[in-house]
Amino acid sequence: MTLFDLSGQAAIVTGSSRGIGRAIAERLAEHGARVVVSSRKQDACEEAAAAINKRYGADRAIAVAANISSKEALRNLVDRAQAAFGRIDTLVCNAASNPYYGPMADMSDEQFHKILGNNVISNHWLVSMCVPQMIERKSGSVIIVSSVGGLKGSTTIGAYCVSKAADMQLARNLAHEYGPHGVRVNCIAPGLVRTDFARTLWEDPARMEKVHNLVPLRRIGEPDEIAGAAVYLASKASSFTTGTTIVCDGGATI
After folding, report:
1. pLDDT value at residue 212
2. In the prediction, which pLDDT does 205 show?
């Protein structure tokens, strides 16, 4: 047994068929957790779950597709997780969207609503669905994958940054509400990571030159470099950590 042992625990990870979410699901499984892999497409979820089961043992992961913009789909996700594993110890709200790239003044209301709905309100829904059974056990961890965008401004992804700042405040508020019941709520704020979601950013030569010149580690991150923070926040190692944001950005924000 170690501080990072997750044996016997069960976790839901949204947006986990690829990128940061998949890395988190794989590392949680590696440390003993059973995981629910979820994203919009069932076949992608099944592929990721099968890879986890092949590597870490049969029945370690199940696949449940869910569109985070649908409250009914999220309810089904939570119900399926409960039915399969009997409990949810860790909820990782990783799925997000950013349908607009450019000045906020040119963004449509529909795009702004989608960003706030998928990146903030859906997290609120999921937490509200998962936390009651955590409160019953007086134990649980909620992890919201935010972004360093929530710590600074942007002329190109401003609405996304607004939503990620809101996620940090959501974690602070919920940490106050659920702390007395033994449930912890925290954020992870990745910097620029090589994922399909951030492809527009890391394929920008000017931005990459800036990263290579200014970021202390002189590079962008890889998905697996975010997963360790999630393992920490899911485990006993973080039992006195709540309401905070762990920044994983190669030193960019300093």
Report:
1. 80
2. 81
Runs of H (alpha helix) within the chain: 19-30, 42-56, 71-85, 109-116, 122-137, 158-178, 199-202, 205-214, 224-234
Q: Give the SS3 label for residue 49.
A: helix
Active site residue 178: no
CA distance 147 to 154: 12
Which pLDDT tens digit goes with each residue over 201-217?
A: 667 888 778 778 888 99
- CATH code given to domain 10-96+127-150+167-248: 3.40.50.720
pLDDT at 32: 97
Structure tokens at 40: 């919009």
Three-state DSSP at 71 gives helix
| Contact call for residues 16 and 38 (beta carbons, < 8 A) | yes
Q: Name the amino acid, one letter, at 120.
A: V
- Residues of the chain short of pLDDT 50, as ranges, are none
Q: How far is residue 236's CA from residue 6's CA, in Å, rounded to a whole number?
A: 8
Strand partners, 187: 144, 245
From the list 225, 242, 100, 224, the residue with the least C-alpha distance to 182 is: 242
Q: Which residue out of 56, 100, 101, 160 is catalytically annotated?
A: 160
Q: Crossing angle for the helix pair 71-85 and 122-137, nearest 10 degrees?
A: 30
What strands, in cross-sheet order, belong to the sheet with 10-14?
A: 61-63, 34-38, 10-14, 90-93, 140-145, 183-190, 245-248
Q: Which H or E element spans position 226?
A: helix 224-234
